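Follow-up to my post from last week.
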Amino acid sequence: MNTTSHPTPYRGRFAPTPSGPLHFGSLVAALGSFLEARAHDGAWLVRMEDVDPPRVVAGAADDILRTLEAFGFEWDGPVMRQSRRGDAYRDALARLDRTGLLYACACSRKRLGESARRGVDGPVYPGTCRGRRPGQGEAALRLSVPDRRIVFEDALQGRVACDLAAECGDFVVRRADGVVSYQLAVVVDDAEQGISHVARGADLLTSTPRQIILQDYLDLPTPAYLHLPVALDERGDKLSKQTLAKRVDARAPLPALFDALRFLGVPADRSAGNVGEFWEMAAGAWSADRLPRLRGKRLAPPSACSPRAPA
Ligand code: GLU
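User reply:
Got it. Predicted complex:
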């Protein structure tokens, strides 16, 4: 399989979901991916992950972009918007279907919750509907996963191994309401944008093996991965728009930028008086070698689909 052939030059990206304004957790991902891209003289692209209409909050995409601008982020090329990528996703679904690995699944969430074992990301689907031909009707489409280990080398988390069948199970690539899954959209779009390096929050570490298998089936390149530490709230939960994490203040970027840089292990020199000076200081001080691996015990994943234990 096509594991790690990394095209050069470096092309990184930031891919927020516009389900609310930019908060500290997404600022950390933006900052880490941006500084890594610039440290490699690479490009940095932005993609709005607005594929799932019920999650999208009106005005949030523009709000995020304005905030990024106020913080001094500069991205290359036009912003990709998943809401306009329906044809590409349909095409990918058709290609997956030709492998014979897609099937229609009409199991309810409730039924799944009752019957299935817990995996790394919710219930492991027991394969009840395997073999049902995908039709036009109101069913989700699932991908049969192979009974083999997916192994990849994360630049920060080390070697990650996942037995997809046991720990994740067949997963949904298109929901019953017709919405394409995050896993499929992200793979199609990373390839379309020519992304060579993905730097994103470690909460997505357990998604990566599913993305690698999709890349394999769709014959798309697998980028290099670096999963950044994730900011947690006092309860140990990931800061996210769903938990109504506080937005960062676009009128006063410096305190949040300093905090985010420090969070990523860089001893921030707080003497920068404006955003321009901040970026100069940050680019000079940035080193991926300083990054802490994971933050907060609640994020420590179970034994598999997970990084090796720290030495
Ligand atoms: N859209 C995802 C988020 O906002 C990030 C996806 C990714 O970086 O692959 O959490």
